[in-house]
Amino acid sequence: MIRLRDAVAVLGSFPALAGATLDVASGEIVLLRGPNGAGKTTLLRLCAGLLPIARGSGEVFGLDLATDRESIRPLVGLLGHQNGLYADLTVSDNVRFWGATIGATDDEIESAMARMGVDGRLRDVEVRRLSAGQKRRTALAGLVARRARLWLLDEPHAGLDAAGRDELDGTLRAAAAAGATILVASHELERASKLATRIVDVEAGQVRTASDGESEEGRA
Amino acid sequence: MSVWRIARLVAVKDLRIERRSRVITNQVAPFAGVTMVIFAFALDANSQILERVAPGLVWLATMFSLLLIVQRSFAVEADDGALDAMRVAGVDARGIYFGKLLGIGVQLLVLEVLLLFTAVILYGETVRAEGIVLLVTTLLSATCGLAAVGTLYGGLAAGFKGRETLLPLLTLPAVAPVMIGATRAVEAALGTADAAVADGWQWVSVLAVFAVVFGVGGALAFGPLIDE
User: Fold this and answer.
1) Is-above-0.80 flag for pTM?
2) Does the CB of A146 have a partner CB in chain B at under 8 Å?
3) Which residues are within 8 A (CB) of A157 and not within 5 positions of it... i.e. 6 or more apart?
């Protein structure tokens, strides 16, 4: 699904990613671990097709990161500190909008909301009235509705309380079980380690080591 | 998804946001109305002068309102990173551009009609039957031009700090030709200072060319501008 070989990505003249080699298979939840400035976000943005690959090689879903970036983007969902939601619209309006950008059917949109637990009483609530955790789940429902198969999450637990974090972890496990592949860059190491099936250390723009996560899926 | 389906999707979403939030209805429309009244005070309520300058005041109030509508339109995209998310998701930038243009254009058109009614009520303007086609054509072509410029520069300014001041700096000089052309064409349509209807059509041509140039140019430039 993701295959990087000595991939280099440059921000200005600075090589933010200085030769990363990484393989990620379908259904994995991979934690990217490392200090600030290590290159985690750059790695996510490279995989999303937002940055050109300067040297080395890389593929996402068999599509070349050097030549097929526009084709990769619709398959990928990148969620950073912001959720990409419209505060004045309802949960349903937001998920429907994101689904409609790829021509999703009503059934797919309803199914996406049900999978992320934002159907029922939440569907007609304006996003501005939601908790941080509910907003995150609405954003993830948008990713499901537009059929994103690779989820790239940058600090997904930021701003959530303990209940919201538990809620998000459950949602991500369920999504991975349903076939989504998830890369998580996080400083919440204890929590993210329990969520991940595999942990990858990123340091000074390089992927140093990889180890199993602590999730039941990872140990299995 | 085709460019036009994306454009319709974005425009419908923007109009739905306005229907729910009522920012344009409750804030921008009263602002435009107050602008018209303030000018009347500034001109010493001289009815002859007011009748003569009313077409220009309508477009001046429209231009100021355009800035507020564009800022609002891009603020809802920037608040939670939705515009970035659309580009990350590979949504066609031309579709986003035409969708924003359409949403802004519809709101602007409604506002222009209200301002014309205000001019009729406050300044004693009269709408001649023979000038109605010219008036409608002028409103449509000027609105397209204003919305095209506003959308292009709104997208550009959205990525900068100080976008509130950058947007007027970029937009006002660019829409000066629309201001001049639309004022002359409306004068001809209303018969202000004995202007003939036939005189207005050359200005409509200018407005149409302006709208096409900025519409096409904006669609081509919008993607690279917002990606930067």
Assistant:
1) yes
2) yes
3) A165, A168, A186, A188, A191, A192
